Structure formats: C-alpha cells, structure tokens
Amino acid sequence: MKAPTTKDKLLTGLLRILPQHLLAGIMYKLARSEWPALKNLIINGVVKRYDVDLSDADSSSLDSYPSFNAFFTRALKPGARPITSPDNSIACPADGRVNHAGIIDHGQLIQAKGHEYGLMSLLAGDQTLTGEFLDGSYATIYLSPQDYHRVHMPVAGRLREMHFVPGKLFSVSEATTQLVPELFARNERVICVFDTVAGPMAVILVGAIFVGSMETTWHGEVRGPGNTPSIWHYQDQQAISINKGEELGRFNMGSTVIMLFPKGRAQWGGNLQPGAAVRMGEAVGTLTPHPGENSIPGPGNGLPASA
Fold first, then answer.
1. Per-residue pLDDT tens for 82-94?
2. Among 99, 154, 225, 233, which has the highest number of CB atoms less than 10 A from its own CB?
3. Got the DSSP string for 145-197?
C-alpha cells in the first residue's frame, strides 16, 4: 500500500471542511440529468478517465443510457458471471479490490496497515448485533469508478433487518483509509443483516464522497426520515430470501462493501490479499454451517437474479 502523498493529505484536509452532503446532492442531480449533451459528456469523460471496460455490460452503447447514473449502475449481460462454485463457498459480492480480510480481533477490524477501527462503531453502537460478530470474520472490498457497481449476495440468506446510519462522506480511496481514523465507521452506511446456514451475515454498503444514495432491491433508495438513523425489521409476511449471486443492492457512485460472519463460520481464500482485484461471483472463501443447520434459507419472495 502506497503512503499518502502531499497531494493526498491536502485533498483529505479539504474534504474535512467542504460541505460533503451538499456536494453529494449536486452530484445526485447531475448524475440523473437526461439532457443528452450533459450526460454524454460525463459518461464519455468517466469512460476515458478510468478506462472502463464495457465488455460484460448488458449494453456497450453509451448512447443507450438515459443518464450517467443509469450508466454507472449498469447491469451485466445475462450469464456474464455464473455462480458455479460449491454451495459452501462464499461468492465475492462485487467487483473491486480487496482492502483487507481477516479475523475481527478483540472487536477491531483493519482499515489500513497500522490503522484499525471498532466493530461496535461500524455497527452504530448496536451491542446485540456487535455480539453476534465478535471474533468473527470480515472482508472489505473497494469499488473504484471503473467497476461494476451492483452488490450481490455472498451466500443465500433471509433478510432479518436493515439499518440506515447517517454519517460523513469521505473518499474511501487507499490514501484516505490511511488518513481518516475509523473511516468506515464514520461514513454513511446501510447495514443489511441476513440469517444464513452459518448464522447471521452482515453486508454493509459504505457511502463516500459523491455517493448520492445507496439502494437495495427490496427497498429502493435507503434514507431515514429527515436523514436520521433508522431500522427496518423483516419478519413473517415481510420475510425476504435471496439466493447466492442474486442482486442485493447498488451504489449510485462507488464506494465499499464489508462482509461480516460469526466466529469460525468463514474461512477466506488466498485471493483475498490486500490490493488484489476480485470479480463479483468468484469464490473468495468457504462457509462452515452452524450446528443444526442443514440447508440455506431458500427464496421467500421469488426475487429474480439481476446480474
């Protein structure tokens, strides 16, 4: 991991004083503009700047996207990422690069070399939820602007609850993770908790600068009333089950996904090394079922695969 440059330090310092949510709001409107001249200018600029590969995209025609946000959250071709790994494997939830993966040590996760942050802070102070993942496993995937920006299920699960946690919108770049303490626990995020064959699993979507919003397939854009902390519970008739590899949600602009599993239930593969490139759907680890569980929760509402 490269040490932050003087430029990185200046830009991070600037982010501390800029109106982050105002900037995100402006980007939200620009990204949804359907004025052809503007949306084509932004799309072409991003494709050129980040060398975006559209070979797996459902449409490679830039003119076919009605807005920049539609381009940014583009779907993949049907069958582009088949899930062929065994049932007990953990599928990578998104395209991107590995930030860190390992064991939650005494309630601490690694943000960058020499920089840690607290599990309880990440989970917005929820002691019960924190207790379920103490000494468990975590993996953090960073999505850059050139990546596919939909997030998929690592394993099959039944949705239990969803938390919206308002917060900052710092960049989540490699440099910023070294410069902003507890970055992932300070930025705005959506915590999705599922029951799986291995016990609880959390998939956390972490917002960042210019991320105008985050969406889930069952809720749409996630935002608490008045931008306040909010929790939704899903039980009985509201139960939602999603298969491994099916779409869970998406970022309207890029950011970071964090997976959490209980103690002893996930063993990460050798491909989850810091800085390694990963693709949605590839096997990144192995799941150990919880005693007494012999099947992963199946579909509850027939949500289709959206890749």
1. 887 778 899 999 9
2. 154
3. TTS--EEE-SS-EEEEEEEEE--B----SHHHHHHSTTHHHHB-EEEEEEEET
